[in-house]
Amino acid sequence: MNIRLLQPGEKPPYSLLLLADPSRHLVEQYVSRGRCFLFEKGKEVIGVYVLLPTSPRTIELVNIAVKKSCQGNGFGKRLIAHAIEQARGEGYRTIEVGTGNSSFAQLALYQKCGFSITGIDHGFFLRHYEEAILENGVQCRDMVRLAREL
After folding, report:
1. Which of 20, 101, 143, 147 is 20–30 Å from 129 (CA)?
2. pLDDT score for 12
3. Has residue 13 got a pLDDT over 90?
4. Are 76 and 109 in contact (CB under 8 A)?
5. Per-residue pLDDT at 1
6. Are 76 and 66 a contacting pair, CB within 8 Å?
7. To the nearest whole percent, how much of the chain has pLDDT over 70?
8. Which H/E stretch holds residue 27?
């Protein structure tokens, strides 16, 4: 298994990216501004994450996804660990991430990886997404913001 940077001219794995963010328009925007990393098992891409610098000392993990059939095997933790090391190696002091109020498993995962809740952007998903997002029987309305010092 290997994690590598998406190469210029290579097509991003939208089927995976859209698992974490249903807006193709928003995904295309931040993929074009950030750096996309692919997690490969053999020649198959089973995971992805995108890092986007937000200030000289802060970078955001704006998308992270693992193929549904591969979830529950620790690959998400491995991607987050890689993102943290990548950010640290580039001299960033803080890594941030945001997730939905209804994303219970993701909230737990980020906290297990050392992130702490720093705030809530109330109504984020109502303002930025045309269609309602439902997870775990709950409407996703608010962006829960988390951060980890490097």
Report:
1. 147
2. 97
3. yes
4. yes
5. 86
6. yes
7. 100
8. helix 24-33
SS3 138: strand
Strand 94-100 with 58-66, pairing? parallel
Q: What is the DSSP letter of 12?
A: P
Q: What is the DSSP letter of 54?
A: E
Q: What is the pLDDT of residues 36-75, one digit of tens each?
A: 999 999 999 999 999 999 999 999 999 999 999 999 999 9
Beta bridge partners of 36: 50
Q: In sequence order, what E strands does 57-135 have? A: 58-66, 94-100, 116-121, 134-135
Rounded distance between C-alpha atoms, residue 136 and residue 3, angstroms: 30
Q: Which of 43, 38, 42, 41 minimizes the C-alpha distance to 15?
A: 38
Q: How many domains does the chain have?
A: 1
Task: Enter the pTM of the model.
Answer: 0.94
Cα(104)–Cα(60) distance, rounded to whole angstroms? 20
CB atoms inside a 10 Å sphere around CB 140: 20
Sign of the Cα torsion 139, 133, 52, 70 reads positive
Confidence category of residue 130, pLDDT binned at 50, 70, 90: confident
Question: Residue 38 maps to which CATH number?
Answer: 3.40.630.30
| Cβ contact 96:138 at 8 Å | no
